[in-house]
């Protein structure tokens, strides 16, 4: 496994490559790589790679004292900020400080095995009051039609966050997984669709996760990847499936998250969000590993 990362560009991973097969797993920028700076819409960025979404996903206003009505930008703050980076012999640590909220967010990259990337996260509250946050990974994976999406057994229901043209319904509506509509049995959310479908949807699994794990597998080429995470610290899993419906882009993201649905204020109101006390640190991690035919 090999990654390429740009600390100055939101600590974005721009390449995640299987060195044995040569496969590139992250969507590459079609135009200029970059964004328009802090507070700009994510839609105006390059639409590629792996960004971090923190402390919200949708733009919103923080709903509690002492940051009441502080405006948090689209996809959060950190994807559009330059990060500091420090390389040791076998690890890379990247860090960034908040703008509207007093935090230090750190990521440490390491390879515990040749075919496994581990990212350790830590957010420290630098202020005098507790604050809540919503973090989610945002890896835009390269896909082909017919790839399989594997999630833990026992997950049978999703809540809609976004649905282009309303195919899945409105935000907050609940649907069965993996076939959301009895009237349209051909729609299967556990298989990637073709770009010509022109759909784009984001949904979260409801209820407690049996296991912190999700995979994307290509049955034709018999290779895939798995993202594993601690469900106690990262209790939610969402999927962003863009099959040509949003800006004509074609990709899929497996998105472990610390909050439920994409708006921090919404998650706080429902107490479905992570929080960190003054002076304390909240930690979690992700591991990305390859999967072969025997694991499919």
TrEMBL record:
Q: Which GO terms describe its molecular function?
A: carbohydrate binding; catalytic activity
Q: Where along the sequence do coiled-coil regions lie?
A: none
Q: Which domain of life is it from?
A: Bacteria
The GO annotation for biological process reads:
carbohydrate metabolic process
Among the Pfam families in the record, one is DUF4432
Read off the InterPro entries from this record.
Answer: DUF4432, Gal_mutarotase_sf_dom, GH-type_carb-bd
* Entry protein name: DUF4432 family protein
Q: Which organism is it from?
A: Paenibacillus dendrobii
